[in-house]
Structures are given as structure tokens and as C-alpha cells.
Predict the structure.
Amino acid sequence: MDALIAGVVARMDAALAELDREGDPARHFLHTYRDVTHAVGAAARDGRVEDAQWLARWDVAFARLYLDALTAHRAGGSVPGPWREAFAAPAGLHPYQHVLLGMNAHINYDMPLSLLAVVSDADARDPDLVAARHRDHHALDAVIAGIVPQQSRRLVRAAGPTAQPGLLDRVLMPVSRAASARLLRHGRRQVWASTGVLLRARADSPEALTAATRRLEALATARVADLVEPRHPLLHLARHGFGVELEQEPG
């Protein structure tokens, strides 16, 4: 594994040990996210992307946004709105729902910001380089989809023997796994569009970037808050989508 990614996995392991020991529901997302990070590291090592070093820098920038938010939350500090909603979700939610909340906050809000950190203004003006970054971004769709079945089984076990799935869940379980992968792919496409808006805003002025980031945070916060409502989460996501649509500032 790349040394950069190995370092962030070590930080995840340390945080996860604390969350597991305390029974904090935030552990459900971090278990899944650590496995995703291992899979991304393997994809970079095995040559499944065009620029493994860039991918490692992006993966680390992405992970640090979440880990910094988790650290601030546990210290009683201020965190971005999407994470505030995810961390404040009722502990009694199904583990699967805690994972969806974390994924939603991390993908819709943190991912565009992390891409912004590793795509310079000069990079953004190079269409060939942008196309290569776009291909590496989407190369991870298959990596993430590949671990969905394993994570689904783990979350069923994490729910415990008293939390037997209802009829609807049993019927939808195979569909849910396919739907999860499809929703993630669509959400990641929206991330790339949001990143384009942030890149254009950064090129305009610091004030434009601040305004665009605030709009993104508001959209992502509302999306996470919506998912906390009691309902079957995948049915709701199938109807309303996973991602958010950050639009260019009018005028």
C-alpha cells in the first residue's frame, strides 16, 4: 500500500479502536470506510488507475476531511453541517443507515472539496489532464461496488440477532446491493459536476469560492438531515437520488 494511504489507514485504525470500545454508532461508517480505503490502495498498487500517486494524494486529502471532522466532533468542537447531522443521528438507527449518512456527508460534501485540493488551477486548464483525473475518479466506481456485498453482510451481523430484517428488507436485500452501487455511481458523477462549479468559482475569486462552498454545505446538510427521517432509506434514495446538485451562481 502507498505510504500516504497506509498513514491514513493507521489513523483510521486508531479512531476505530476508540469508537468500537465506546460502542459509538459512528463506528459503522468508519468500518466501511476503512475497507474502502484498503480497496483504493490496492487499486492504486495494482495499476487499475492511470496516476497512482495522484490517486493516493486525493485519497488522503479526502480521508483527512472526515477524520478531522470526527476528531473535532469527539472533542466537542465545530464540524461542517453534513457531519453535524450525521454524528447527531439517533444511536438506535440500523447500522446500514448510519453508514448511508456517513457516506452521504463524505461523498456529497468532502469529495468535491478534496478534489479541489488536488486539482490546481493550471490542471483545470489542461483538458487532457482533467480527462485523466476524471477517468481515475470513475475507475473507483467498480472498486467501491465490489465491496458492497461484503459490507452488507457485515452490517446485518452488526445489527445483532434481535434486529431481524423485516419482509421488505429480505425481499429488497439483493436489489439493495445493486441499487447501492448504482446510486453511488450516480452520486459520484454529481460530485464531479460540483467540483467543476468549485473550480470555476476558485478561478473567479476567493469570495466566489467561499460562496460556492457555503452553498454546497447547505445542500449536503439538508440531504443528510433528510436521510435521518424514519423510512426505508434505499427506497427513498431510489426515488430522490443520492447526490446533490450544486449550480453555478446566477449572474
